[in-house]
Amino acid sequence: MNTKLNKPSYIADYWHRKQEGIICTLCPHTCFLKNGETGICRTRKNIDNKLFSIVYGYPCSLQIDPVEKKPLYHFYPGSKTLSLSTIGCNLRCLNCQNHHISQADFRSSDHHYASPEHLTERALLSNCQSLSYTYTDPIVYYEYTRDMAILSHEKGLKNIIVSAGYINKKPLRDWCRYIDAANIDLKNFDDLIYQRLNGIRLKPVLQSLEILNEEGVWLEITNLIIPGFTDDLKMIKKMCLWLARNGFTDTPIHFSRFFPTYQLNQLSPTPINTMLTACQIALNSGLKYVYMGNVSNHKAESTYCPNCGTLLIERKGYLTLIKGLKESHCIFCDTKIPGLF
Predict the structure, then answer these.
(1) d(CA 339, CA 86)
(2) What is the DSSP string of 209-235?
(3) b/e 195-213 (16+ beta carbons within 10 angstroms → b)
(4) Does the chain have fewer CB atoms within 10 Å around its N or its C terminus?
């Protein structure tokens, strides 16, 4: 059972001392922190010239979701996942849907302590097949996810990250030893827009996609189409062609519809025609599994065989029906469908 305890902070990985402070090397921000200072993420703090993860063991959100909500469409469709997060994020997205936790300052007294053992047991008792590290960016509670992933693997559970992918090479490759699947937000394909909209750079995100692909982590990609920011069709085509030319033709991509929120409350929702055009651009670019998200009961939520067009998995909201798939193959033409089913 969870109790409100003042557990000691957990010493973090990926940092080194420099002169009168510490440099955190987990993500490309490489924050320089003097004693008592906290990084951009609000979760990693210099305490007496050692770097600590001050959110370790303190989830702020915890619930059971369908795995399709991550979104993951080719990773044990129809299964349940225990979703969790802590406070903090290393991005500053103008459209953040979870800004009340991602941009909040952490105080342990506001949260119940939950050990990796406790959450693993909760996932098992809830008949979940996986744990998902989501809502805020799990990069900022890296050590917590790692310890839970190691423990939950021993219990037969899978582990999922939902992330913007703004992480350095070494910690990402280390993470890949424990993570089974990832959905990465490729927020746009322009470095200046990335800086303006999200407060980060494009290149490290592309690097993360390539590393996840190389390391064999099941990968799906989300691209949120925001009117006036990320809806330029030439940019979308450039992004899709880059994915096709760099080994991602079998990687599902989810074009997600924007709704007004946070600092972009003045904008309108993404027109459906823009969504449909983006999907067609992706298909024309050679991407085989293209989906629409944040739409209601549209056929672009379902999975079709790229060879014969047969409906393989029908989705209506979060209701998932496997119709034309048997042991990862199309039942009509025997085409192998990538993923874990």
Answers:
(1) 29
(2) HHHHHHHT-EEEEEEEE-TTTT--HHH
(3) eebbbbebebbbbbbebbe
(4) N
